[in-house]
Design brief:
Length: 454
């Protein structure tokens, strides 16, 4: 970034604030912009570090501010095809994202993880493994997990490692971003309201390998049709993981054991029941991917397996909350799409009262309903999608449906419907927007309610 270069940061959330701060540190002339007319310049300025001279603009972007912008840094929530971004790009501005900006200041190696589901669990586990290997101060866990890359990149060294959870939104705007090890855990329909087509969504995910070569590694899921196909043309060396098949090079499941496969030989690593605290086959996949990524980053197996054995579920992802009145309560608020929510249901081993519904991302729910398989006793629906989901459920012959107008009403209804020996599962298959700021708030409110039960 050249000294004095005119830069526009679009979006004043945590990514935007991190980008603006980094650009100012680099000597750029920075404007922080947010289209929300309700925001004031004082509110935006208050998010920035004390003493910052970043100019803040909310509402309509003045022409004099847009004129001459050389670099535009988009926050992940800002689509790349909105009129403002298109105009700036056509005027000659370079459009990048917060991940690309952070990469420009990166000094160490990178492990980058994407996928429709499982990113946070896998990223967190990989981060813990690398911290055990290198020490806390030499590992930075960043990205979609909630910690901006731009807030950590200046701390990196030649000996450090950055572990990034990278969303499809963030991958749309990379240019030179180059991980030593990448991973695509799975690809299933999601965010089609943003990407418009499945082909565009898949292309965004595959972009994680854009700058990789045969000297790098890409960890792929053999059981996902999109990633299996991508393995044929991936520019990096592919390491597979699979719960069904035995790959030539990679990790697989044999008789409830995770094993490593290499040159016709297998090595047993751990028992998924005895050596794991995580539940569900989705988490077996996440663990296999984490092992492959960590090994690719040079961590010895002894360290990897010790961390796996002591690792517990990430908050809001099939997270056991409590048992009240003989009913087990699970928080899977991060199940924000049908495929993720399917994994939540599969992890249940008892009759389940399921909470679904929320913001409409133009998903279809047939496979989710099909996964109920006699396990779901009642489906309690809330939010924008409740009628759409109910119609789909009835089409598949499932009629034990109840509606709730508020979240509190929904939670109370679930406790009334549940009997001793049942489970109540919050796994909505939808985003939280409209009713909650994010899935974390939705999950926290669920846990608060459960813990308050007699």
């Amino acid at each position: 970034m050249a000294l004095g270069e005119k830069c526009l940061v679009v979006g004043s959330g945590i990514s935007g604030i991190g980008s603006a701060g980094l650009l100012e540190h680099m000597g750029a002339d920075v404007v922080l912009y947010d289209s929300n007319e309700k925001l004031t310049q004082e509110e935006m300025q208050g998010k920035l570090p004390q003493g910052s001279h970043v100019r803040c603009v909310a509402g309509e972007l003045p022409e004099d501010v847009a004129a001459g912008v050389q670099t535009v840094v988009l926050s992940p929530g800002v689509p790349v095809d909105i009129p403002l971004v298109c105009r700036l790009r056509e005027s000659g501005a370079d459009v990048i994202g917060e991940i690309e900006l952070g990469y420009q200041m990166e000094k160490g190696r990178i492990a980058a993880i994407t996928g429709t589901n499982g990113k946070t669990t896998t990223t967190t586990l990989v981060g813990e493994i690398l911290k055990a290997h290198l020490g806390q101060e030499r590992v930075f866990v960043v990205g979609n997990i909630g910690n901006p890359y731009t807030s950590e990149c200046l701390k990196t060294t030649r000996e450090s490692v950055t572990v990034g959870e990278i969303s499809s939104f963030q991958l749309e705007t990379i240019q030179d971003f180059h991980p030593a090890v990448s991973a695509i855990l799975n690809i299933t329909p999601d965010h089609l309201n943003r990407h418009h087509t499945m082909d565009a969504y898949v292309a965004a995910k595959e972009n994680i390998t854009r700058n990789q070569t045969g000297e790098d590694i890409c960890v792929l899921n053999y059981e996902n049709p999109y990633t299996r196909e991508f393995g044929k043309r991936c520019p990096a060396r592919v390491v597979w993981f699979s719960t069904v098949h035995k790959p030539e090079e990679g990790y697989c499941l044999e008789q409830e054991k995770i094993v490593k496969c290499f040159r016709g030989r297998t090595e047993e690593l751990l028992d998924i029941h005895r050596d794991m605290h995580l539940v569900g086959m989705c988490n077996v996949e996440n663990v296999m991917a984490a092992i492959a990524i960590a090994e690719g980053m040079g961590v010895p197996f002894g360290t990897i397996l010790e961390v796996v054995r002591n690792f517990h579920a990430v908050e809001h992802r099939i997270e056991y909350v409590a048992t009240k009145g003989g009913v087990d309560y699970y928080n899977d608020s991060k199940g924000t799409n049908p495929d993720a929510a399917i994994q939540g249901i599969r992890a249940m081993n008892r009759p389940t009262i399921l909470i679904g519904g929320g913001y409409d991302k133009e998903s279809v729910y047939d496979d989710w309903i099909g996964s109920f398989e006699g396990k779901v006793k009642w489906l309690v629906l809330i939010g924008q999608t409740r009628e759409k989901i109910a119609e789909c459920a009835r089409k598949h012959g499932f009629h034990r449906i109840r509606f709730a107008d508020t979240y509190q009403e929904c939670l109370k209804l679930c406790t009334q419907l549940a009997e001793e020996g049942d489970a109540v599962l919050l796994s909505p298959a939808c985003a939280s927007w409209g009713m909650f700021p994010n899935y974390e708030v939705r999950g926290e409110l669920f846990k608060e309610y459960v813990r308050g039960l007699e």
